[in-house]
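Section 5.1 Outputs to date
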Amino acid sequence: MANILIVDDEEKIRNLLSMMLERKGFVTDQAGNGNQALAKLYSDTYDMVISDIKMPEMDGRELITRMKNEKILTPVVFITAFATIESAVEMMRQGGVDYITKPFDEKRILIAVQRTLKLSRLITENREMKQELQKADNNHDIIMQSKKMGEVIELAESVASVNTAVLITGESGTGKELIARYIHRKSNRNGYRFVPVNCAAISLNLVESELFGYEKGAFTGAGARSKGKFEFATGGTLFLDEIGDLPLESQGKLLRALQEGRFQRVGGNQEIPVDVRVVCATNRSLEAMVNQGKFRQDLFFRINVFPIELPPLRKRREDIVLLAKHFLKKITCAENHEITDGAYRKLLEYPWPGNVRELANVIERGVILTRKTGRITSDTFSFLKVAQPVKRVINIVKLPPQGIHLHEVQWSLVKQALNAAGNNQTSAAKLLGLSRAKFRVLLKNIEGGNGQQTDNDA
């Protein structure tokens, strides 16, 4: 509940206001003059101040002046008698948001309080937003010297100033969100929120309510209206990461919101206008998904107005040493750590399938392994193993003239893989060049009634 500071040199007036407000559930505190109020404002947080204008020691005029000088942004409502309304109006010019006349009318007080508390919430949200933006600027540096990344930055800068849809593509870990944030910071929307949404991490039945919000009673558990990410990002940038994982059913709603600039909450009929810049990212081929019927072609055309492709780390090796030094500097417990030339050579030789994200994790692991010595050498990175490519064997089975039963061949190979892997499905899947999920589907299809029980992986 809101916390309100009441400032007046008359104790009876302070107590009367406190009783009125506390009866409505507000929390109140009191000060007898501006000096006392200022001391409380230094030590505690209040949602608003109700202050008399005429007081001994420090009056309302000096109080609001001192608050402005000290950058105390708490909104102030002034108390005034009918004879001093002109003074109250002058105080509003100085930064007050409203005034209450004596004698007090409880309804008028509550109206002024509720209106001021709305402003207080906006001030708080704005302050938090600026802190988030500052944090984003400090924590999302783009470290690079390679020509390929230089070209990416040029593209990002050229599109930042126009409200065009951007599609950022690249492997996992290449820094797609970093570029999206860079575009936001360079745009005229940088005073508003950057709202990231990982489409792959949202439950299928919650995608639309997450993006567009929902009305009270729209589904079980919807006890109150809730805003979605589109409304939360109003004025700013909405970053839809892993857009290729968005269900087909939700793609139509997204397309309509982008085309018409409006949407409906789940369970609602009201058309809500939307003013956001949408930047999408994916590590999948959306064109291939369109051909397979897994992604809407019209949505693909809508989001792919300005494509930016991020190169994998192995194709921008000039940045590896710079990035390694940057990540080392960011680790608080690594002030005295150093990376040897041999360790850098090892980093340069590694193919980096996990890209920049993997490099950051490798540096952190290296710091942990060398806490005592503070010296990261090539031996420290001995855990970086270069995977040997699987040799494709052609014509491993020669088809006899009379033909074969494919089911039996599959079952034989699956049994051999399981035996070789000690009944461990993950290891057996690797022997057959399959993911564990695909191996389990194959096993289920061919087991029939005489399949054997395999151990579940821990």
